[in-house]
Amino acid sequence: MKLNKGVEWGMHVCMLLAFAEPGKLIEAARLAEYHELSLAYFRKTLQSLAQAGVVESVAGPNGGYRLAKPASDITFLDVLTAIEGDQSSFECTEIRRSGPTGLGDSCYPLVCAVASTIWAAEQSWRDHLARVSLFDLTKGLTALAGPEQHDLAMAWLAENVRL
After folding, report:
1. CATH number at residue 13
2. Which of 3, 26, 114, 156 is the most buried (most CB within 10 A)?
């Protein structure tokens, strides 16, 4: 399965917003700049996140983006579905009913074994992502990134947040 790059962008931006003080805003251009992303494409990611209620957009000269709710209430699955939607990544076309062994619909009362296996795996994956909050991801980030990167990120936030 291949995910849209907006999922990665969305998660990293939400993690960055989680480190900002509650209620503080960061401009879209500054968020894109932080990860060296194309602002035009990145705006689509922000729009999807805002429409899904993950981030909040505030218009105006002092506007920007902030998390729409506490980081502990936003899951990885929330971000994923904001960007990718909640439809299954697999569509069964029932090819088992075609070809020389294909029979009428009444001969196939059970779901296709291939489809049921993929759908079960996908549900397990989604269940796992639903258990991982944005807060969970950010709490160990400092240890993973190292103190130097953490300090640089905090300095950047201090310079780029708005009231």
Report:
1. 1.10.10.10
2. 26
